[in-house]
Amino acid sequence: MKLKVDEIESGILIDVSGEVDMESSPKLRDELKKAVKKKPASLRLRLADVPYIDSSGIAVLIEGMKWAQGKKIPYVLVDISDSVRDVLKLSRLLEAFTIEGS
Fold this sequence. Notes:
By secondary structure, the chain is of the alpha/beta class. The protein is built from three helices and five strands; from the N terminus they run ββαβαβαβ.
């Protein structure tokens, strides 16, 4: 998994590419924690290039959302891949997230 972090006018954008699984999800967790500490105007995760996400990856997405909500930071999943959408839908979490694009 690769992460590209950009500070944009509307906040922080984390572009995630590759598989988000038990091995790689701690890296995403650490990056989300750092981003929330900066108190950006918004925190956006682009997931278009994520071909696979497992339960540990979903747990990190939820954890990041809770951290952001605790600081009143809008948390948005952007351009999610079909596989991520399918996992969120199957786990009945699709409606829990704010999703833009795709």
